[in-house]
Every structure is written in C-alpha cells, then in structure tokens.
Amino acid sequence: MTGPAVPAVSVADLPVDAALLDVRENDEWAAGHAPGARHLPMSELTARLNELPDDDPLYVVCRSGGRSSRVVAYLAGQGYPVVNVDGGMQSWAAQGRTIVSDNGNPEII
C-alpha cells in the first residue's frame, strides 16, 4: 500500500519566485545549488525543524526528487505547506537554469 501522493511541480512549472529548500547533503550542496535556495540536509531535518523557512508554499528539492518527495510527505503530515520539485537538481540543470557553487565551478552530484 502506498501513501498519499505528495504535492509536486516540475522544474518547468516552478514559480520564478519559488522559495526553495535543498535537502541534499553538504557535499552535494557545495558542488552546486540553485541561487537563493536554503539548505537543510534531509539527515538533519527532524532535529532542525525550527529552522524551516515559513514560506507558503516551500518547494523542496534534492538531486532527482526521491529524497525531497519523502521530506514533503513528512512535512505535509506535520502541517507544513510544501511542494516537491519533480526531477530535482538534475532537471534544474537539464533545463539550463542557473547553478551556483562555493568553489565557482558548479556541478550536480
């Protein structure tokens, strides 16, 4: 039995001003992320819920959409207004959207 479907949006349909929460791990984030995104690794989420931005809705992204889907299911169950970004940063990069990194040479890992 599967759980309820999580709210989701494709990168192509993502609002220009979408508030992004990147739930990838630190090495993935450092390698490349969306400009303006906020970072909270999935592995630290439950311990850092108080750090969640209060955007409504909050768009959650990971590498390919799997982890962010689990995070969205969890947060939606807690009453947060969240939406999964289908395809994650791989889709983001494939669509030619801007990626920034700490070292100035962004890549998606």
UniProtKB/TrEMBL annotation:
PROSITE patterns: RHODANESE_3. It comes from the Bacteria. It holds the Pfam family Rhodanese. Residues 14-101 form the Rhodanese domain. InterPro entries: GlpE_sulfurtransferase, Rhodanese-like_dom, Rhodanese-like_dom_sf. PANTHER family: FAD-DEPENDENT OXIDOREDUCTASE (PTHR43031), SULFURTRANSFERASE YTWF-RELATED (PTHR43031:SF17). This is Rhodanese-like domain-containing protein. It comes from Pseudonocardia alaniniphila.
